[in-house]
Amino acid sequence: MSVVGECLVAFVFGSVVGLLVQRSRFCNTAALRDAMLFKSYRNTKALLVAMMILSIGFPLFMTFGEGHPLRFDVGLNTVLGLFLFGVGMVLAGACTVSTWVKAGEGNVGAVWALIFTFIGMFLFSLVWSWNYWPPAPASMTGQPNLEALQLGFANAQTLQETFKIPAVVFGLVQAAVLYAIYRAIRRKEEAQQIKHDRIAASHRQPVAAE
Hints:
The chain is mainly alpha-helical.
């Protein structure tokens, strides 16, 4: 496919995804925040379904397709980075995807969040070469290095190469775990609905005449 074709496919795909996110009000931050604070699981269930699809789709492509999956070291730096990113999402009140949607809708706060996201990425790029993880060439080799708090590469492709087991197997295991969580949430919602219906029915019962 030519560069122009790839750009057109990316534009169409991005437009469709953007429309779906805007209309559904889906947000990764809300998926976790609403579940923990408000016991609302609408976004949580949507996130779990998306993760189940990706957990099967990507490893399936790795097993039978020809792709170039990203390879990156996982270690303490990853944990700290994800934690700081999560704090930023909570403070911004939205994940990166929904921030773009809100900015497009004219939300000034979302625009500021995006601006400072770009500033942060630019500042990090300035120190990438010498402050990635000391020292990057020696410690981040794709292999476990506990002294440098590095776990090495961690994805389905790596597991497939290490254990000679198709990547899709690991994806199916992960999807099964995610489905179990999804079913637990559904059972909890059903129990809450039954309790709510019983309370509503008791309030509708006529008071017996004395």
